[in-house]
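Progress note, sequence design subtask.
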């Protein structure tokens, strides 16, 4: 390999994220003899000096880094491949070798782009070279997404003659992220609370916006937006898999999408006829799946704060006044209730007892004795009108103790997690990115008195600051 070509390949890692094209893979004609030999042998060839390992499946070759790092990446790649096959079926024909090159070492300055691709070809097959910056360790999440995209490219090239492609292949982020989410839910690792938050509060991406988002924009999303994107993408993939003939349709979709240039909803309706019932059928299936994933299981335990909020909402007595309107009174203010007969008292406590019964399935375990005490108080008051048998103030004090101890325990666990953390979450990077975006955003001129006053102060003190 010439020095010029080597520099050109490695320079991909230093391109800024803003400069990424929508098509992540580049077509290059030149192939070195070593790569030609690797490709012609199907990837099953050890590199010189044992500096290259081949995954057990034979589809992935890993070079660079130390032996342990190469082995770890090879195992992760095969794990991704196995899960992908379970989801989309076995590939009809494999025409692409995937070479993973680990660049950098611990302590090096991180590259501007942690991942870069290059698609090449020999006379025998296509070769995808994936460069991974490991200066901060293996970026497992991004590497897994890159491997999914690579396997999707492999499906798209199954019926394509080896040679120059008419146009670059491209995998939309929603499909890659959605596949990872579908795996997580299949392994019961999905975050239901994220889906609940997106479903209840809204504010996510529109369907057309989700499907049309290029990789360059997805890379620039902040942490919250990426989480919303992940939930909505996962719901879409699981909605497709849940259709009649979903597995077969999804397998065909995986082979078509990388080379597809039309509107994505149209392709989905072609592969999943059940979504053709109306113009909005696709969006409805998507929303229904999101709502289903947001539903809490009966045995899902709440934390202390959630239990406290649900208990406070349940402990409300209601009755009908003289005009027939419903009046609600918190349980601790039961003395403000008017005189009631036995039937009216039973009617007032029944909804509260039902709510406590449902809450007992999901409440924080320490609260169950308290729920029992409240049930006993309600039964005694409904039968005899006596609210003095059990001290409600004492129960409220116990709840406050639970809440304060729970908060202290949470703070301590946060401290331990921060102290023992071995990886960077990226949250601070999201903050810095947002800060820069706010600086670049044009602000509307403000003429209110306060703004004019602040501008006057800036004008007065600016010369003094510059003099210092």
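Output:
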């Amino acid at each position: 390999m010439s020095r010029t070509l080597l520099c050109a390949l490695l320079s991909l890692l230093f391109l800024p994220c803003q400069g990424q094209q929508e098509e992540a893979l580049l077509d290059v004609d030149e192939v070195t003899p070593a790569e030609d030999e690797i490709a012609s042998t199907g990837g099953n060839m050890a590199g010189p000096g044992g500096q290259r390992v081949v995954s057990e499946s034979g589809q992935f070759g890993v070079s660079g880094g130390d032996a342990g790092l190469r082995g770890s990446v090879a195992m992760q790649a095969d794990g991704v491949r196995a899960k992908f096959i379970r989801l989309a079926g076995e590939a009809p024909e494999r025409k692409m070798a995937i070479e993973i090159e680990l660049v950098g070492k611990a302590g090096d300055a991180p590259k501007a782009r942690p991942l870069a691709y290059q698609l090449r070809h020999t006379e025998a097959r296509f070769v995808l070279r994936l460069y991974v910056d490991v200066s901060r360790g293996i970026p497992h999440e991004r590497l897994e997404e890159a491997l999914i995209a690579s396997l999707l490219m492999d499906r798209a090239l199954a019926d394509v003659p080896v040679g120059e492609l008419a146009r670059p292949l491209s995998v939309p982020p929603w499909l890659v992220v959605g596949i990872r989410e579908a795996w997580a839910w299949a392994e019961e690792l999905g975050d239901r609370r994220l889906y609940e938050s997106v479903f209840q509060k809204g504010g996510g991406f529109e369907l057309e916006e989700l499907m049309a988002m290029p990789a360059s924009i997805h890379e620039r999303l902040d942490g919250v937006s990426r989480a919303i994107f992940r939930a909505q993408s996962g719901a879409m993939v699981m909605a497709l898999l849940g259709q009649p003939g979903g597995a077969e349709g999804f397998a065909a979709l995986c082979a078509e999408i990388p080379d597809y240039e039309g509107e994505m909803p149209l392709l989905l309706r072609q592969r999943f006829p059940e979504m053709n019932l109306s113009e909005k059928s696709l969006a409805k299936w998507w929303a229904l799946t999101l709502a289903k994933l947001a539903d809490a299981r009966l045995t899902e335990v709440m934390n202390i704060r959630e239990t406290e909020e649900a208990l406070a909402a349940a402990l409300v007595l209601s009755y009908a006044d003289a005009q027939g309107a419903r009046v609600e009174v918190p349980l601790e203010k039961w003395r403000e209730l008017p005189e009631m007969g036995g039937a009216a008292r039973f009617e007032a406590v029944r909804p509260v007892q039902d709510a406590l019964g449902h809450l007992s399935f999901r409440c924080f375990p320490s609260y169950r004795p308290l729920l029992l005490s409240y049930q006993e108080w309600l039964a005694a008051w409904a039968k005899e009108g006596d609210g003095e048998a059990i001290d409600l103030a004492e129960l409220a004090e116990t709840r406050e103790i639970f809440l304060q101890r729970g908060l202290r325990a949470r703070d301590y666990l946060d401290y331990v997690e921060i102290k023992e953390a071995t990886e960077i979450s990226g949250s601070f990077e999201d903050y810095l990115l947002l800060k820069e975006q706010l600086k670049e955003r044009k602000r509307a001129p403000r003429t209110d008195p306060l703004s004019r006053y602040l501008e006057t102060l800036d004008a007065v003190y600016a010369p003094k600051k510059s003099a210092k």
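Residues 1-50 have pLDDT under 50 and may be disordered. Work on this subtask will continue into the next period as scheduled.
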